[in-house]
Amino acid sequence: MRKFRKVLDGLTTSSPGATLGSPSGGSGAGTPTAAPTPKEIDVQETLLSEDFQLCKTVRHGFPYQPTALAFDPVQKILAIGSRSGGVRILGRPGVDSYCQHEGGAAVLQLQFLINEGALVTACADDTLHLWNLRQRRPAILHSLKFNRERITFCHLPFQSKWLYVGTERGNTHIVNIESFVLSGYVIMWNKAIELSTKTHPGPVVHLSDSPKDEGKLLIGFESGTIVHWDLRGKKADFRIYYDEAIHSVSWHHEGKQFMCSHSDGSLTLWNLRNTTKPFQVTFPHGKVQKDGRKESCKPILKVEYKTCRNSEPFVIFSGGLSYDKAGRRPTLTIMHGKAITVLEMDYPITEFMALCETPYNNEVQEPYAVVVLLEKDLIVVDLTQSSFPVFENPYPMDIHESPVTSTAYFADCPPDIIPVLYSIGAKHKKTGYSQKEWPITGGTWTLGSHAYPEIIITGHADGTIKFWDASAITLQMLYKLKTSKVFEKSKPAEGRAAELVEEDPFAVQMVSWCPQSRMFCVVGISAYIILYRFSKYEANTQIVSLEVRLQCESEDVISPSENENDPCFSEPGSAHSPQHPHRQPSSPGCGTPEGVKPSIPCLKVKDKMVRVPPGYQAELVIQLQWIDGEPPQQITSLDINSAYGLLAFGNCNGLAVVDYLQKTVLLCLSTLDLYGATDPYQRLTRSPRRHRQSTSGLTELPDNQQSFDMERSKSPTSATESRENSFSRSRSSSVSSIDRDTKEAITTLQFGESYGRKSDALTSPCLWVGTSLGIVLLIPMSIPTDQEERMEEPVTFGPSGAVLMLKGSVLRFGFLDCMGALIQSPYEVWRDTNAAEDPDRPRKRKLIHFSPSSSQETYGDGHLAVVCSERQAKVFLMPSQSCLYVHNITESSFVLRADVVSVCNSVCLACFCANGHIMTLSLPSLRPLLDVSYLPLTDMRIARTFCFTNGGQALYLGSPTEIQRITFSQEMCDNLQEMLGELFTPIETPEVQNRGFLKGFFGGNAHTFDREELFGEAAAGKASRSLAQHIPGQAGMEGMKVAAGGVVGELARARIALDERGQRLGELEDRTALMMTSAESFSKHAHELMLKCKDKKWYQF
């Protein structure tokens, strides 16, 4: 614990220039800029660098660009591989693990070691990896890198330690799973095919062992060649040459037939008794044309042939539709007997897999479901019902239903808000799902002791808002809100208007939510704000619409001399008088030239009475006006305070404050008018329309020395590739040489109790304003305290009493009392305005205030204001406005996100920089505690969606479809193992079914197949060292010990060892008996020979 004491004596009024010029040490905290005072500020800082560690916690959403699928039928867990090298492993709800290959190569194929707690991944860089799943965070045990051949297909037989690997050259190699080294046994392509064949058969596209005999391997080549290889005899039993390319092969469980899918949309069924031609050829979707020919069909990419005990077998395949019907959606076809069912999918099918009861390929399969992996969704079809309904997916796979454009994270919500949102959201859930339970039930997960209410809010390109329950590192949809329902359905625009209107006009730019009062604000890309109230009851309501003009004209030039003697704000009743609904107020600082076209917002709010369901109900819509046919600039900052009943927002032209209780516009000022005579730069007004701000970068604002002249992007989700990586440039932090043409945007706003002027002895409601030039303004307000007066009397504003300055655009405010505790903004306790009123007990507004002076009587009045910009962080003492501490956060980059958050019963300033660094600074001394280079390259998506919350947590959109949550708290890192689910659970492997005497006698597996004897080093020798390179895994020996440490694993190994020992003892007993018989025979013959030769003389021989 470290104690910081600041003694301040004789506080002097410092000008903005003096504050700006305060000394600062490059990476450490700066020195105070004011002389000492008799007051003492004694803050016990408890946070140390040991309290911080950065690690990923969990990843939610659908795996982006999936490529591969695998299922363990005993453990009942599912694995999905992706193009970026990620692997998601899913079990029961709560069991969700994400692991990433270091190289980032695409995952080509996945193979579970069934019921062994391990997974083999084959990647596009021709490397095989063995993952240990017996630990909560999977790790690689071994890797094998192929140097001369490219991997195309892998197959691992059940309960085998030998993995078959097919390559692009047509060869088949065999890998020992235990040691992860190649066997010397290789099936070369030229040995597999006949010598008379003149063409190469192509890459290996299929490998499988025969259900009838494990010693026979079926090899499928892309060209249409199929080879049935005898592993013992090292020769081909038969070869099939078909004139259509093969995509997949599937066995009948008896091992007498197999089915192939081909590139011409056909399915061929082959019988092992006669392999000269297919037993059956079908074109499931190919109709006979008038000329008698079959119409051409698309390839059938995969087929599965699964048998049932009490019904006809299932034939399930993807593709195969005819080419004549353009625009048809991707399909999965299920053939069951004579019934053919075609299931249309919303996205292309990446992979599918039938889930069966048994892991043995020589038993009746009994499929009960089909997992279908689409490009942007995961569905599971119930095969036990004739209508083939889908299961309700318990995982949050629809985060990307519409592209995510904004996020918000709340880790300290009131505990009652989650059940309320869930109960209302549950009423709107889809129906028609299968009645059976979700079939992927593997792993174990418990709630843990460190769970607390957390909510994630996502805003989307189509205007939808989704509330998610994020408690205990899980994610579950609570409630969905459609903001577009507030507006009339718009007609398609024409001409120039069509060019200016957004492609996604309802895209959510930012949200502001007060969990205590349940007030909710949404900012749209089309420069509007919607205010919602929460109610448990449906209601008939009319949405109030306000139009605000925040647009300066080029003809308006304000010289410094005009405002030299004017106060920053005029009288409340004059220029800033309340503006009533449906008026079109003009900015007091911005004139309206003659001949201007009508100001019409591009979206029309519904003006009729509407019936709204329970949940969030729109109360007020604020729209910025179009001026002279030009769209308004986007809103860049927003804050709402339920205790004050006020909403403030700003853009690059100015600031507006709205009283949402009285539905009036209280303040509408250009940025320059905010300063008046206190403008430190004495600039002239210029047209904000000269340079249009890009809408693609929702986080970027014009900086101090540069003005951007970019085209208006179509939507926040359509940023170009060059913009995606635009954070590599550095931004100038100098505020001494400001271009007169630079816009100064309002970048952050916050209501709170503070001291509006240095001379104030008591706190009052204030609005803190931060701009893109690093200037902080403090606007005091006068709000009627009586409830009736509050609804009738106007809120008034006083002249600004503070102008503070920092380097770079201001990002965040935070307030601490003089003991270092966080001061919350005041709020109104939620009350349901639609509930029936009790005439005896009328409802009143209940306000909760957190005054800085209420908890620190012994320390006197005052509080600390933490201000963070793109470059700097400063701590000011209020009301003296003295800078106590300053820290230069970065010189080479700039801060994208900053927040004052609670960690380990204390508070710190957390920052995320454009160069990927995550930093934390102590408060109030701004001492660096953590600085980690987390992301090597930050793109627009991450910058737009990154947000911090209390408890040392943060999140961002790791891919267009996935939310990545991280923590920088050492305590949470320590507890993470307890919070994560177990992927592997000890389960006994199902016993082989009794096949009956006749089946066992006449066919199949009459002789056990010893792969070790065939593929081991003693028999096959060593493989060429140059062919593949073994790479030890990160998990090392510890991971191997963990993998071998399971109870079932030990039992299984002990049982196998006993069986092997018993088998060896039996063999030894047989050999001993044979030797005894041989010895007895030898003794008998020797005795006979002795008797015969006993009386003979030597010369008689």
Q: Work out the radius of gyration.
A: 37 Å
Please state the structural category.
Answer: mainly beta
Number of strands: 64
Helix content: 10-25%
Spatial strand arrangement across the major sheet: 8-9-10-11-64
Domain V-SNARE coiled-coil homology: 1036-1096
GO cellular component, one term: plasma membrane
Biased composition (Low complexity): 10-22, 574-588, 727-737
Biased composition (Polar residues): 694-708
Question: How would you describe this protein?
Answer:
11% of the residues lie in helices and 36% in strands. The protein has 14 helices and 64 strands. The chain is mainly β and 1101 residues long. 45% of the residues are buried. It is a peripheral membrane protein.
Q: What's a quick, concise take on this entry?
A:
By secondary structure, the chain is mainly beta.
Please outline the helices and strands.
Blueprint: E1 2-8, H1 16-20, E2 39-45, E3 52-61, E4 66-72, E5 77-82, E6 86-90, E7 96-100, E8 107-113, E9 118-123, E10 127-132, E11 139-146, E12 151-155, E13 162-167, E14 172-176, E15 181-187, H2 189-192, E16 204-209, E17 216-221, E18 225-230, E19 235-241, E20 246-251, E21 257-262, E22 267-271, E23 280-282, E24 300-306, E25 314-319, E26 331-336, E27 339-344, E28 349-356, E29 367-374, E30 378-382, E31 404-410, H3 417-425, E32 455-460, E33 464-469, E34 476-482, H4 495-500, E35 508-514, E36 519-524, E37 528-535, E38 539-541, E39 544-548, E40 610-612, E41 615-624, E42 637-641, E43 646-650, E44 654-659, E45 664-670, H5 671-675, H6 721-724, E46 746-754, E47 764-771, E48 775-782, H7 787-792, E49 796-797, E50 802-805, E51 810-816, E52 827-828, E53 847-848, E54 863-869, E55 872-878, E56 882-888, E57 895-903, E58 906-913, E59 917-922, E60 928-933, H8 940-945, E61 947-949, E62 953-959, E63 962-969, H9 970-979, H10 997-1002, H11 1011-1015, H12 1017-1020, E64 1028-1032, H13 1036-1043, H14 1047-1093
Parallel strand pairs: 39-41
Antiparallel strand pairs: 1-2, 3-63, 4-5, 5-6, 6-7, 8-9, 9-10, 10-11, 11-64, 12-13, 13-14, 14-15, 16-17, 17-18, 18-19, 20-21, 21-22, 22-23, 24-25, 25-26, 26-27, 28-29, 29-30, 31-32, 32-33, 33-34, 35-36, 36-37, 37-41, 38-40, 42-43, 43-44, 44-45, 46-47, 47-48, 48-49, 48-50, 51-54, 52-53, 54-55, ...
